[in-house]
Amino acid sequence: ADPARAQIMRECATWLASKFREMRMEPEIVATPGAPVVLAKWKKGGSAKRRTVLIYGHYDVQPAEMGDGWTGDPFEPRLIDGMVVARGSTDNKGQIFAHMMGVAEKIKAGGPETDVIFLVEGEEEVGSDNLEGVLRSRKEELACDVAVISDTNMAGPDKPTLTYGLRGISALEVELTGPSHDLHSGVYGGAVVNPITVLTRLLAGLHHPTGQVAVPGFYKKVRKVAAWERKAAKALRVPDAEVKRQAGSPALGGERGFSAIERIGMRPTAEINGITGGYQGPGPKTVLPSKASAKLTFRLVPHQDPKEIADLVERDLKKRCPKTVKLKVTRHHGGFPYFCDPTKGFGPAASKALSQAWGGKRVDYLLEGGTIPIVSVIKNVLGVETLLVGLSLPDCRAHGPDETFPIEYLERGAKMNQALLKEIAGV
Amino acid sequence: ADPARAQIMRECATWLASKFREMRMEPEIVATPGAPVVLAKWKKGGSAKRRTVLIYGHYDVQPAEMGDGWTGDPFEPRLIDGMVVARGSTDNKGQIFAHMMGVAEKIKAGGPETDVIFLVEGEEEVGSDNLEGVLRSRKEELACDVAVISDTNMAGPDKPTLTYGLRGISALEVELTGPSHDLHSGVYGGAVVNPITVLTRLLAGLHHPTGQVAVPGFYKKVRKVAAWERKAAKALRVPDAEVKRQAGSPALGGERGFSAIERIGMRPTAEINGITGGYQGPGPKTVLPSKASAKLTFRLVPHQDPKEIADLVERDLKKRCPKTVKLKVTRHHGGFPYFCDPTKGFGPAASKALSQAWGGKRVDYLLEGGTIPIVSVIKNVLGVETLLVGLSLPDCRAHGPDETFPIEYLERGAKMNQALLKEIAGV
User: Fold this and answer.
1) Interface test with B, best of A153, A176, A180, A187 (most B CBs within 10 A)
2) Nearest to residue B370, comparing CAs of B399, B343, B410?
3) Which of A322, A327, B73, B342 has the greatest number of beta carbons closer than 10 A?
4) For chain B, what is the domain count?
5) Are residues B194 and A247, on separate chains, in Cβ contact within 8 Å?
6) Mind listing the pLDDT tens digit for each residue in A185-229?
7) Are residue B19 and residue B102 in the same domain, yes or no?
8) CA of B257, closest CA in chain A: separation in Å?
9) What does the pLDDT look like over B304-316, one tens digit per residue?
10) What ipTM goes with this model?
11) Cα(A221)–Cα(A294) distance, rounded to whole angstroms?
């Protein structure tokens, strides 16, 4: 989103289009109010039964600077111990390039078993604001049977993984105003209610002591997790100790009756992403502040609706807020959760392709705790499911310094792409 | 405390000393590691029964700039509608100068009825860090029967007021660390406990729903307020509506069973002066932060001890803090509460003097919610009580822009000083 990089973004889109042209696909650079979207088609047509696969990726990356802790220029790729070290290597350049390699090879040999549309955008890291418009205006042209995205993690090295669900999100901001101006906490404290105190009570009330979210109605639409899913979660072999190690947390917590990996994938959350109020400089200051505020996000699971959840939260806060402060709730973005039963539709095809690419290894089934809003948009606008066949590893440091991608996963990914298109054609 | 003002501070001390010399007192500028203290004595001696009064004031002021909302240069006094408008006019230059005027006039006429020591420091606004050392090293020289300070508010215009108590203070800072680094709230939220969430629970637990402080043992040493005190509080005629108006608060709150003015003067508090954690910029950010912290002050009433209260609070926080975060408590300053029964000792003398200076008006008795730590230091080191005979009005805007002091209160204050010394001599 850095305006200074707009020219480089356009150059990247042009480079992608030329690459698609080299592959003998038909590329087009679609202008948007933001970064352009690159579309590229390979259509054989003919049989009405012939399937079309939409492969989504993004060419934009997170900002990076040497000062963040990089051991070399983040935009000058280095190959170290079989890993490509560069910003975007795993998120999402390496992953989308593996699919391009797979399709390119097949086209040289006469073409893959399905028609293919690549859709590579440049605004994923800043909310994909302009992509829905492109999908809607190009709806017929983008008609397909299924979408494929490699922008998620594998459960671990050599653990081919099908992500069959994502959490949604509902983001809110809460601001409380007590006195009209900051007061001396000696001269007024005890009689004038402190908005920070009220805020701590409101926010502490978001959870039950059991770790469950306490907003009335919050769990009403939460789907029941199937027995096979809890088995699959166990099969991931990501013990609580591993999550604790990654987080560097003194101890884990959360909703009773679930493992860490289950809490992250299968259960919704209420999270305070930021809180602010009063004096924050060094040492003490005896102020009774006028305002206090907090940023909240709720991670959602099927079939929770981000707007309904925001409504429930706002109602609960309003009900519990005392008359001593004024409450203002601002809504930020929302994203629907996603769930695609891997035993149905194209799920088994994806599993088979993943297993093949990793030499017959068992495929893991993962519920991702994060949100990829575009997956729900694809479902809503194009009416198709998305196969989330990630090639990234948990320690690839997406968004962090020295982001890496295993160079051999380019070949693996290309093989997986070829197997996947073949399997999809056969469904 | 602005180092750029150090030279002006020294000039101010020199001016004060020369003023005391003009008054035919014996001034001395006492160097400290910070701003100098100005001492000035007028001793007649003779009778062993002759009393000595220590009059305390401070020549330092809060910072002030035009940008704060001043309607003229804050350091160029203006006389507007009978009010001196200038930084320090009420806090504390006008109030201490009234005492100097009173004593000067009496010295011309042969001297007041008591010996007098002025002690005017330059670090009141930054915690009086060096004053205790001066008191201790000059203990014999500063021996006196009672101290007098005019650095508090009157209950209102033409309401002569004897402040007979001050709240103490105990300041703490709480920091919680959860994960060792900021995490993605999607990827870890639900399993890794958010330190902001824990902080809101710990802080919400500082109060009972009744408004009482919930820290075990907090009220153990709180003295019982006498019936006459509640009568005196009522006689102040400061209704809750007036406190609400001053604060611009939607509604007042606090401990049940007390009026606003009683809650401020007679009851202790737990206040959150600042809270911080996670993302505070515009819009949302899905971070699960590593740290969250808050600044707390507890206002204390007799006979609470600031160190004991800090111990109780720290013990309570440690007991309630879950294992999912690391708790760090930092102690800031403490100050003892103060209480001096106005019906005993020199109290009646002060009441009589106040009433005389205001033409026989009834004297109000006030408990101040703020803290003046030096009053306890005077009691501890010199062993004497302090008469708090404030000349400031609630709307004099001490510490604020366009600070004012009624010019006629210089004369009133001088008369009050003369009456007070005479009454003290007669006790």
Assistant:
1) A187
2) B399
3) B342
4) 2
5) no
6) 999 999 999 999 999 999 999 999 999 999 999 999 999 999 999
7) yes
8) 12
9) 999 999 999 999 9
10) 0.91
11) 26
